Sequence to fold (740 residues):
Amino acid sequence: MSGADNVVWLGTPAFPEAARTALADRRLRANLRRATGTIRDKRLAATAELDDWEELRETAAALKRRTLRHLDQHLLRLEETVTAAGGTVHWASNAAEANAIVTRLVQATGESEVVKVKSMATQEIGLNEALAEAGVRAYETDLAELIVQLGGDRPSHILVPAIHRSRSEIREIFQRQMGKWGRPAPEGLTDDPRDLAEAARLHLREKFLRAKVAVSGANFAVADTGTVMVVESEGNGRMCLTLPQTLITVMGIEKVLPSFADLDVFLQLLPRSSTGERMNPYTSLWTGVTDGDGPQDFHLVLLDNGRTATLTDEVGRQALSCILCSACLNVCPVYERTGGHAYGSVYPGPIGAVLTPQLVGVENAASLPFASTLCGACYDACPVKIDIPEVLVHLRAKAVEAKRRDRLLPTSEALAMKAAGAVLSSPRLLAALERLAASGARLVARDGRIGVLPGPFARWSGTRDTPAPAREPLRAWWRRTRGEGRTTTEGTGR
Amino acid sequence: MRIALFITCFNDMMFPRTGQAVTELLERLGHTVEFPQGQTCCGQMHFNTGYRPETLPMVRRFAAVFAGYDAVVAPSGSCAGMVRDHHRVVAAQYGDAALAEAVEQVVPTVYELSELLVDVLGVTDVGACFPHRVTYHPTCHSLRMLRVGDRPLRLLRAVKGIDLVELPAVESCCGFGGTFALKNADVSNAMLADKMRHVQETGAEFLCAGDNSCLTHIGGGLSRLRTGVATLHLAEILASTEGDGR
Fold:
């Protein structure tokens, strides 16, 4: 039992199958290509401005590493400082516990609706659905999250959850759905971005002014001071964080930083990596409660949900350094083509492919570590230097191990790999295979090219010709033209 | 300098011409090339697909077979990267202290072809002649694992008669990814389609790279579509001389 039941969307097929559906959607691919391309260029320009970018990355990676190593101490210190500042800290070991805590806190206020700041942690635990079951309506107020919520959709990107939607689709969603959730879209709404933003503003303003309870996530929390921080672009988060009486923040335990000065590093890295801006427009910090100013009741829910288990993996734990900037999604050639839904999780893209299997157990998301060509673009883009390819191949090994453990009979892939391993470990067997392949190819090749291959290789040969194996492999050519090479190593040539 | 050629299993079987080109090129530059017949595979396919214990015999064999050379050259960025980045991991996880030590000894002597030429042998003009329009695809592992940078381009720019044109979206992955091309065939194809479009936009006769595996993927697609664009390993262009009549 992983305790992270809501990280993965039930019923989503394995990645290759989900990707096939996504690839067939031409409009989706066009939306993604345009959007990721734009953010990619902005990020490159913004990061190139800083001479010490690489040092910042190193520093951030080291800070995160050190913090995670003593996570228990920093969390206890955070509990102390938040409590001293008038807040209340709650500990949730899994999604169900966190949802129960938040539901209880909302019910205690007597309210039946909450406004929400964009938050990955609350999506991870499926909070909106849990609140709905308890008769509490949660309104997303981030523009993109609003689009997703009104569209009855799922987020497909960490930072830009409606990246898969075009302006005309958004207009259509607003016209059709806004009335059902509150103030309807204005008559004659166009797909001009200003018009769409104005429609969202009018729709949301009503909610901000009425709300008594807000729920947020957190980008960072400072152990030494008890300060919690949210960075955003729209100011809608600021509305939620300041107007209501009660504020409930759900935060993954990995978000804690030891001291206020650490924010210096991350506030340079995060906006440049995520939106390609020098600074995000709104940075809200609060420390407990302040008389007569902002929420008078503040609750911080610290969420584990698979994180402690992830921390025990020496290679995999670096994924917890993630600051959710989504730079890796924007540079990923796989994400660019499939979008986020194919990953079947609130955490899509390269970081999702290493985070999700760890939070839910690799056997429950076994196709995700393989959803990458290992091209390494994600590692280069990562502001905290998470070596995503390293974690991917590490998790692939764990996925294969899990299959070995759980199955009575080996998979056909495992048998093939075992056979290939034997051949590729022996020069004698390899030479024999080369001779066999060369004579086999003579039967099927046309002009030195093979058109159709059997079995699983048909997936390869459907779109590609394959050159015929050489009649004379290099080792045979060498032996014929130059003799044995280096005789001293022949002893190891079984 | 006594240089051992690690041809890689894939090149051995499919592209012996690449190995012959490396040999000709290095001999032309005045070096001795040896081919240890005990060599097999770096273990990359197994390692990257999650079959780590199976890679141990290959790692062991590599360290034994290639011990004691001044340099070991591999005409493959991803195989050289496998040795450099992952053989230590396998030795530590599944091997013994002796293997770990042997791996430590051999790893620093292993170079991808452009690294050997530029960094170790100190040449960029290798005296090649190749009067054709060529575009170069930097494979992901040579670019982001080995960090060969512009070394291959410096070598190509010095080739006599070459018309070197830049590939659009040059640093994008071609979509091969080893077993990825089978496990995620549809995504692989989508990436391949974009790479082929960019190759065709250059009007090149030849697509060149330092890895025949990526070239088999891209070239296989180019061949199926009858584009007329051929693929060629970097070594084969660098080995070409005026007398070749290419």
